[in-house]
Design a protein that fits this description.
It contains five helices and 19 strands. The termini are far apart. The chain has two domains: 2-70, no CATH class; 79-304, Fumarylacetoacetase-like, C-terminal domain (Fumarylacetoacetate hydrolase, domain 2, Alpha-Beta Complex). Strands 1, 2, 3, 4, 5, 6, 7, 8, 10, 11, 12 and 15 form a twelve-stranded mixed beta sheet that branches. Strands 9-17-16-13-14 form a five-stranded mixed beta sheet, with no helix packed on it. Helices cover 15% and strands 33% of the residues. The mean pLDDT is 97. With 310 residues, the protein is of the alpha+beta class. The protein is globular.
Length: 310
């Protein structure tokens, strides 16, 4: 099942290119807003699923392109993101030590929304194409063998990053946790619709140009290991998000006016815009293209605008 929030955060089920309004089915779930409505539904999904399935077959269907899609999880309680979690097409000789970081719930935006680049001296702004796990039931110190039983579903996730901020070695928080730096969607897909989450092709385009193109089979620490490890540090609750990392070789600069699209097999296509009041510019090469040209540094340099090198 593909769950979507639309217009004034009504709950819908996707049927092809149509949305069926099923919000009446979940009105009795205790909630104060769409954020805990979705987490409440996820926690009670076995109870509500038959009614949702019936409503999705009998309700009025509306074209999704006439609706405003919202982030399917407007404010997750926890957003954990795995760091350096791909083998980079075999260019890494061994997996990096397992590691993660937090993003703020205020970083969440949805399909059609805008990632805003802040007025900070970042050397570059990038967005990492990722598959995010949505937790379905409480997970604390979960053994790896049982970890996937705690998965409710999956969705597209872009990990916005403001690279190169000072001081060196102390930047994860200010690089990753900024508002609008966690686009998700366009909908949430239940786990039963994804045959093997470790064999999904992930593609990201900037202005129609394919930049990232990799498979989740290249993941260094597999999803079950990630869930087990994160749940050993803190409890995961229904509706929490665990982003599983990216292959960095296709990363390129995000800049003002860009249209970015992320599509993962079975998870739909997420569209966002990029806005930068400072109108800064960078070269368009990916990290791999930059390296192949034997140019200095890991990423393309800033070409113009505030904070550009003299």
């Amino acid at each position: 099942m593909k769950l979507v929030l639309f217009d004034d955060y009504k709950l819908g089920v996707m049927q092809g290119a149509l949305i069926v309004d099923v919000s009446s089915v979940v009105r009795d779930i205790p909630h104060t807003g769409p954020h805990d409505l979705m987490s409440g539904l996820i926690a009670r999904f076995d109870e509500y699923r038959p009614r949702l399935e019936e409503a999705s077959m009998t309700g009025t269907a509306m074209p999704s392109n006439r609706m405003r899609l919202r982030a399917p999880l407007p404010k997750p309680f926890n957003i954990d993101c795995m760091a350096v979690n791909y083998m980079e097409d075999g260019t890494r000789t061994e997996a990096a030590p397992i590691n993660a970081f937090f993003k703020s719930p205020n970083a969440i935006i949805g399909d059609g929304d805008t990632m805003v680049l802040p007025n900070v001296p970042a050397t570059i702004f990038e967005g990492e194409a990722e598959v995010a796990i949505v937790i379905g039931k409480r997970a604390s110190n979960v053994p790896e063998a049982d970890a996937m039983k705690h998965v409710f579903g999956y969705m597209n996730f872009i990990d916005g990053s403001a690279r190169g901020l000072l001081p060196p070695g102390n930047t994860f928080y200010q690089m990753k946790a900024r508002e609008t730096f966690a686009p998700i969607g366009p909908w949430l897909v239940t786990a039963d619709e994804i045959a093997d989450p470790q064999k999904l092709q992930v593609k990201l385009w900037v202005n129609g140009v394919l930049k990232q193109n990799f498979n989740t089979s290249d993941m260094a620490h597999k999803m079950a290991r990630c869930i087990s490890w994160v749940s050993s540090i803190h409890t995961l609750e229904p509706g929490d998000v665990l982003a599983t990392g990216t292959n960095h070789r296709g990363l390129s600069a995000f800049q003002d006016g860009d249209t970015v699209e992320l599509e993962t097999e079975g998870l739909g296509r997420l569209h966002i815009k990029i806005a930068d009041d400072l109108k800064r510019t960078w070269g368009r090469d990916t990290r791999l293209e930059h390296a192949d040209k034997k140019l200095a540094g890991v990423t393309t340099p800033q070409l113009s605008g505030k904070y550009a090198a003299a």
